[in-house]
Write a structure and sequence with these properties.
alpha/beta, Spermidine Synthase, Chain: A, domain 2, Rossmann fold, 2 domains, binds spermidine
Amino acid sequence: MERWVSEVNEGWGLTVNTRNQLCDIRSKYQHIEIFETVNLGKLLMLDGIIQLTSYDEFAYHEMMANLPFYACGHTPERALVIGGGDGGVLRELGRHPELKSIDICEIDAEVIKAAREFLSETACGYDDERVAIHVGDGSRFIQEHPGCYDIIIVDSTDPAGPGEPLFGEKFYAGLKRALKPGGAIGTQAESYFLFPDIARRVVKFAKGLFKNAGFAQIHVPTYPTGVIGCCVASDSECVFAPLRSPDEKLQKELRYYTPEIHRGSFMLPGFARELFER
Ligand code: SPD
């Protein structure tokens, strides 16, 4: 039976027509739901917030993985993903043979389990033998790994529930400590339409800690407002343009990320540019 499911944000919502619920679990941390939709493939929601649909998840995951990869001051060898239990960022990092290890620290083992069972096209990232899974608190994990990583990607849900500590200043300082010199971060920085204060705050933290930091926009039609940000930051010479480029083989595999999109994603509408300059 068809059922319209919505993510609701103060007075309006984004609604997707589904035909079948594949997963409905209340874990220790959150409500995990996976649906088969009528025309967007699978849909993952955590506590009623859309995390991905098969239709457009490539856009978000390619950018979250590749913006920091190509902003890093040297060729990255060690990557860490915080959150990202669905495996989409892992899948994109796995396309880079230069990476020797890819750690993931996800707080909710049930998300990993559900994704591997019902979202195989996204969770295939776990099949890579370079991936090591750590179930636990990302804030604590980075404290225990100073100077370890070339790139760190924070693929969190919204700042409520388990994602909340990942939007604080202390956490950003911890990310910097966990990086090797010249390393880069890419963090989920929300939409400048929907959560301008959060977007501004995290970019401000990053600007205070790194030589270069900025908000890159990613077009994702099934996130409310159709746009979401990645805060990219590094002490490398530049984050706003790629320091290296995908080779021909990799570029053919990518559907969203290109060196031009890397540069273009930092070109923001006037009101958003003004927001980040405040
Ligand atoms: N507003 C929801 C933002 C969700 C970002 N994380 C998505 C997880 C996909 N791997």
